[in-house]
Amino acid sequence: MEQRRLGKTGPQSSAIGLGCMGMSGMYGPSDRAESIATIHAALEAGVTLLDTGDFYGMGHNELLIGEALKSAPPSRRDSAILSVKFGGMRDPAGNFIAFDGRPVAVKNFLAYTLQRLGVEHIDIYRPARLDANVPIEDTVGAIVDMIDAGYVRHVGLSEVGAQTIRKAAAVHPVCDVQIEYSLISRGLEDAILPACRELGIGITAYGVLSRGLISGHWRQDAAQSNDWRAKSPRFQQGNVERNLALVDALRKIADAKRVSVAQIAIAWVLAQGDDIVPVIGARRRDRLTESLGAFDVKLTQDDFAAIEAAVPKGAAAGDRYEAVQMAHLDSEKP
What we know:
Largest sheet: 8 strands, parallel, barrel
Distance between the termini: 37 Å
Strand content: 15-25%
Low-confidence stretches: none
Pfam families: Aldo_ket_red
InterPro entries: Aldo-Keto_reductase (IPR050791), NAD(P)_OxRdtase_dom_sf (IPR036812), NADP_OxRdtase_dom (IPR023210)
GO molecular function: oxidoreductase activity
Organism: Caballeronia insecticola
Radius of gyration: 19 Å
Helix content: 25-40%
Number of domains: 1
Protein name: Aldo/keto reductase
């Protein structure tokens, strides 16, 4: 497995990580046994980075990962790098209702995370979003307290802009910023990626397949009402048809190289820099195997030109989140 360091100060990680959110109901029902088998298969293949959030399934995801780690061979379990997001507040119906980045909340969230995962420390701990009511310096300072106490190894950030990144890095070294990055979500290239590279901060890229939209597998007729994507602008009528047309254009390039659309999309992100680690949201072993096949895809300059022509920057129809969420994303602010 190819290795990439997460920033100047972060851990050495597999070049692809496994995002586990989809195993806890965000994209409709998932199979618990298959989810655990997928985590085991990822570890066996050399994938070390496991990404989760304490609000995924209201704790379900952390319990699931904890169960998978407990039943994995000790050598594989010990190799796992746990990346955890915190701060998302949800009601009993599952609605997101607030974000809490207060220092006292940070320490409380961490206590429950350690218990659910069944571990003594978290490798990378990060606020899932910027709390507009709490200075990022205070939130990061609380994580530093937990580093000093031995409960956390590294500070991470998620979906924040360049100014916030600089403020956080002035408090303590940041190993990586987790942010959406794909062929149809390239906003970080303007200011966030240059700031991270200036400061020696890595990128863990989620949404590499745009929640399945550019995987080559998603179909409109298979959409489920309990799937989070039902409310996503890019999956809405009028937008989704235009976005799937981009996928069709990408499929021609994939077919010519005898690889899948997903593999082309992942390979493109992998090729954007050794400081970028794609986090793949595979829920099944076959999808994991397909994703790891991206390592075998060698893109030429002609391929890059063809991909750019097929999916130009800014070509996607619709925002990546609903308007209310977009308004709260620090990463989307000028």
